[in-house]
Design brief:
Blueprint: E1 3-6, H1 12-24, H2 30-40, H3 46-49, E2 52-56, E3 62-71, E4 74-82, H4 91-105, E5 110-115, H5 120-125, E6 129-133, H6 138-142, E7 148-152, H7 159-165, E8 170-173, H8 176-181, H9 193-198, E9 209-213, H10 220-230, E10 236-238, H11 248-253, H12 256-263, E11 269-271, H13 276-282, H14 296-308, E12 320-323, H15 326-338, E13 343-347, E14 356-359, H16 361-367, H17 370-375, E15 382-386, E16 406-413, E17 419-430, E18 433-439, H18 446-465, E19 470-478, E20 484-490, H19 495-510, E21 515-523, H20 530-547, E22 550-555, E23 565-572, H21 575-596
Parallel strand pairs: 4-5, 8-9, 8-11, 9-10
Antiparallel strand pairs: 1-2, 2-3, 3-4, 5-7, 6-7, 12-15, 13-14, 13-15, 16-17, 16-19, 17-18, 18-21, 19-20, 21-23, 22-23
Helix pairs in contact: 20-21
Amino acid sequence: MVKVRAARPAEAQDLTGLVMRSKAYWGYDADFLAACAEELRIRADDVTSRRIVVAESERGEVLGVASLEGAAPLAVLGLLFVEPSAVGQGVGRLLYRDVLRRAAELGVRRLVIDSDPHASGFYRAMGAVAPDPVGSPADGARGGSALVRFEVTPAPLADWARAWTGGGRAVHLGNVGEFNAQFADATLDREQRPAHHYACLAAFYSPYPAALVLPRAVPRGWTELVCRQLGWTGLEVYDGLVDGGPGLADAVRARPALAALLTGAGLPLVPWGRTRPFGRLAGRPWRAGELRYESKSAAHGLFGRILADGGHPGIVLPRQWRADGRWAAARMLAARTRAGESTVVKTEHGVGGSGTTVVTPAQVRAAGGARAVLRRLPRGPLLLEEYVGRPADGGADPAGTGGPRDLTYDGFVDDAGHVHEVGGAVMDVADGCYRGATVGPGVVPEGAVKPLIAFGAAVGRGLADSGYRGWFDVDFVADGQGRLAPTETNLRLTGPSIAFMVAARLDVLRGAGHLVRIADRVELGARLPEAQLDELCAALVRGCAELGAVFVPAIPTGAFEPAPWMGVLVAARSKKVLDAAEELVRAEALAVGAMFGPP
């Protein structure tokens, strides 16, 4: 394994030789190299003053050298050279990321890189931005090309991410099915097949996992690619643990050696959500009722109590009624239809919009009445809620706000009961069903940020007071006046939380400012064999990189279903590039699938 260490003054002459060999790798002639020699020379007293480090192999061979020069807030990447025999082995990437890490620790907020034009593609791939030819006065005389200037904003790991897992690595338990099953949701499959696909999101429960524990087997190529894209090393994967049903935590406990390995390493054990079996595995007491606000009616009651205390302008709570049986629900729905009102019909629990249906008066009449509509919905108790529209029918935006309709707040309550803000996100919701989310700077409209953050934090305090500990979100819809209406809480990790984790990791690796989008389902034209799925993902990595974006496959196992799909993450520093990357991914996924499907 290659490691980075501080250079030694006695190595100065040897390091100068490495730098010159690396420069010659690009085919420069002897005159040009001679003109560069004095500028590229490393002296013994440079080693400390220029913060020079080297990349060293297990055999003690020096494979590369880098320097971090200057003082906060502005610094320069003065050197980054790799031994020609080691080019393409990840040495440059290792050194670059080490420079970014050290710069962030020193408080550097602007790192300047004047790149040899042959290396400009490397710096773009590493996330450096704003290329601008600069060159030195000697460039023309040397017969060389102008240098290419890049800049990057070094970023430490976000404060919330440090608090989430103590700033270190964690063990991730993909117990999505186990979490869902405890609510006996009538909209979900008893065997939780879809949930076992979504358990792949366990890879992203924190910015840097030590181990993944998964109910179903996952492709090896997937984990290798995710590790490469996110700079993870030493990741252990324990998959294929559940033959039937949702019980992942109990499946781990049934393997005492594995349970001891996972719980005895002293690392945080992070689940998708809290369950009684997880409590037994983690040695954490199960608190009766700690998930009570996962119920939509209980969450609505919490929202009402918070708003009754005042202090939340810009937040409006839709009215909600609990129907005591289907006949009562039909009567309520019929009355609202006669009044020309649209209605949101909900089950007490649901995942990703399952169990939530928006019913318009036109739909009720087309179906033949309220009873006919309700017969198509899941069995069990129902809630009826005011529909928050733009305007009443969800049409044009009369206030001209032009903002997104579906927003969410993510945060968590730590073991001491303190609430930590993660941030706001914009969700992609169609017909009441969640399809993905986007996080990052400027995603949430400016006018919505303050009310969203303030109300989300208040909900967090309410959850903490109730005894809940863990991740949570609060979902909102926006009306035509830009007001936010809270609709539910989710006491677990979420799709937006996954995007936040990846954004935090990419900001550390590539510099601050990433927008990250998670798309739950990208349709494939046909079921792909594992090797072809690997090829598709590799092609998407390259295609997105050419746009200035990052591609990470999030859910690979859906590619083997009869109606094939995969979940993906894309990241960029502008919405324009992000949109282009998502469009590319969707188009290429269908095009490659068509090669294996029927003509």
